[in-house]
Amino acid sequence: MTSPGQRSPRQLLPQVEVERFRSTELGYEPSDEVGLVRCLEHGFPTPLARWHCHEEYELHLIVATSGKAFVGDWIGSFEPGHLVLCGPKLPHNWISLDAPPEGVPRRDLVIQFRHGPIFEAGERIPELLEAVRMLERARYGIEFFGMAVCAETHWQRVKNARGLKRFSFFCELLGDLAQCTEYRLLSGMQTQSDGRLETINTVVTRIANDPAKDHRAADIAVELGMNQGRFGRLFRRATGHNFASYVNQARLSKACLLLMQSDQHVNSICYDVGFNNASNFNRQFLRLKGVTPRDFRKQSQLRLK
Hints:
Strand content: 15-25%
CATH class of the largest domain: Mainly Beta
């Protein structure tokens, strides 16, 4: 039973944003003007600053204040110029810690767009493939560096245009982001699997569903009818990690979710996600996240404010 003052696990889950909540009073464009691309501009504080997710991609540029950012299981600092692309269903929130008492009228410049039309077009239009590859990475959340001025210029052009002109400006933005080489992936959570390597998709799904299980590369390779070397190369190509590293990251990502969404004791989480001792769990968590599990839990509560 949840004790007084504690949040229930349900309250800790991200709010799912749906169309009926996208009011023009909050900064959204009128629904009858929205095609593939939606622009949004808002200040802080705002009801829109909450731990949430939605079906669309979201490109998010901070233009004022600094504070804490939450993208999936990643927690970090932000300041003006912070530019992040979140994939569909990846939870996120930005909490300003230095906003004046009266707030700020313009903190966030946002572009949201749907997954299906771009990926379907990518199957027929080769020029879109570089954008599709970037969007596949966005399932982890991508932070871009050195792109703030360019992104704000693109946002303004997209915002002021309609119809085909808006779409052309949006494509220019995607092109610049796809060619940016200064970026990092943020979260250990995946929101979509890589559709190009279906064999590995089933393995990745199995690990994600039960990271605590004793997953062995040799056993899976035999199951798939290939030698371990070939399986390892295919797995690295699909995920960017070797098998053991990926399993370890999946366990830590599950631990992050339990730390964020439950009151379960840290040591209990350690064993539930597949680690054999608390010392190794704490060491691996600190190495990947830069904080201890207990500090991660404390910091994660800020996303709910």
